[in-house]
């Protein structure tokens, strides 16, 4: 399968001139500027296959927008090799523009005062899409994104969710092979988010469009992206699946057991530990009783402590169980830990 994005040692540094405070300081900065360099992206290696959906995650200032700008050819890399859809983004920017689509959640490429219909017509001319192809694509997108009810409404009167659907149509009218989405679900309600996600999944399945998403919403990643890239301070911290990251860095899991009603008495008479919390006698090492609420109890245990089924068997041998579930740590918490502890995952065996 051929590659859609190939980056090797991709880097971008910005030179920033610092302005000294005060009037005299300002004058001095003109003759003797104090220059600082910021490494926005550092030696990024990235290979994305055609048809992949990949999430780019990182805190503010991590280098996500700078990466996207280099991938679209807006910014010239300071170092490294880069090819997108087989093209050199800066040198072949026009040609590349015809093969990619871009959607920014916080900005619109639609004309504010024009009805959506007219904006989409103007874009046809801008991208020089042949009439027949435009009609065909627009017909499909109208259906997939349910645009008909607001095609004649000026863009400024659209709800955020409707505008986002309009923006997606605008970015896809020229049939791009690669779609960049920057915070596509920001500010949307749950229903609108679900709708956008469903659309993106069917776009990927039906047209094979490669999708690269930057987002702070982990639900976007979990629903859409089998693969996730975590960046911080311009460096790649992780490249792999969401499941693997949970497994490697998820820490504790929680077993939630609901006991049969007549077992509640047994729970209410449990002994206390030295700090006054209830404790289950003979808990296997590494397993902790976290909470008891009526017939429901929660046990936390490390991934390496014991296999989950053994813990269920241990509990089942002592109490009659009505229901057992496992809670995985929220992916957000796992990623926060990776940023905070600055964990760099260099083990390439876990990268996809
Ligand atoms: N044009 C520029 N001139 C100078 N510094 C810049 C420029 N663009 C970005 N930077 C710096 O590069 C770093 C990375 O910024 P970037 O916008 O790529 O981060 P980001 O991950 O997209 O953040 P956010 O989630 O806030 O959008 C930051 O330190 C930022 O201040």
TrEMBL record:
Annotated keywords: ATP-binding, Nucleotide-binding, Transport
Molecular-function annotations in GO: ATP binding; ATP hydrolysis activity
Domain of life: Bacteria
Domain ABC transporter stretches: 5-258
Pfam family, one: ABC_tran
PANTHER family: ABC TRANSPORTER ATP-BINDING PROTEIN, ABC-TRANSPORT PROTEIN, ATP-BINDING COMPONENT
UniProt name for this protein: ABC transporter ATP-binding protein
């Amino acid at each position: 399968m051929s590659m859609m994005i190939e980056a090797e040692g991709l880097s971008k540094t910005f030179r920033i001139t610092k302005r000294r405070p005060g009037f005299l300081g300002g004058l001095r900065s003109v003759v003797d500027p104090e220059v600082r360099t910021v490494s926005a992206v550092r030696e990024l290696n990235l290979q994305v296959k055609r048809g992949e959906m990949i999430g780019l995650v990182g805190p503010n200032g991590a280098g996500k927008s700078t990466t996207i700008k280099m991938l679209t050819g807006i910014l010239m890399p300071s170092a490294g090799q880069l090819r997108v859809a087989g093209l050199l983004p800066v040198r072949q920017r026009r040609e590349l523009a015809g093969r990619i689509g871009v959607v920014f959640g916080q900005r619109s490429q639609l004309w504010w005062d024009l009805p959506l219909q007219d904006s989409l017509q103007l874009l046809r001319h801008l991208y020089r899409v042949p009439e027949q192809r435009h009609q065909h694509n627009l017909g499909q997108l109208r259906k997939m994104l349910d645009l008909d009810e607001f095609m004649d409404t000026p863009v400024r009167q659209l709800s955020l969710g409707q505008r986002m659907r309009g923006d997606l149509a605008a970015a896809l009218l020229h049939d791009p092979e690669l779609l960049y989405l920057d915070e596509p679900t920001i500010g949307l309600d749950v229903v609108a988010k679900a709708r956008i996600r469903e659309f993106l999944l069917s776009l990927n399945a039906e047209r094979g469009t490669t999708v690269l998403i930057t987002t702070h919403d982990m639900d976007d990643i979990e629903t859409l992206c089998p693969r996730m890239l975590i960046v911080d301070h311009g460096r790649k911290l992780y490249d792999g699946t969401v499941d693997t990251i949970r497994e490697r860095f998820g820490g504790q899991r929680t077993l939630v057991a609901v006991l049969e009603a007549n077992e509640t008495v047994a729970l209410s008479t449990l002994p206390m530990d030295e700090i006054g919390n209830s404790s289950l006698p003979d808990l296997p090492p590494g397993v902790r009783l976290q909470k008891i609420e009526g017939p429901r109890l929660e046990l936390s245990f490390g991934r390496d402590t014991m296999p989950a089924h053994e813990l269920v068997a241990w509990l089942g041998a002592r109490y009659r169980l009505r229901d057992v579930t496992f809670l995985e740590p929220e992916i957000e918490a796992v990623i926060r830990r990776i940023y905070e502890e600055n964990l760099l995952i260099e083990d390439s065996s876990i990268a996809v």
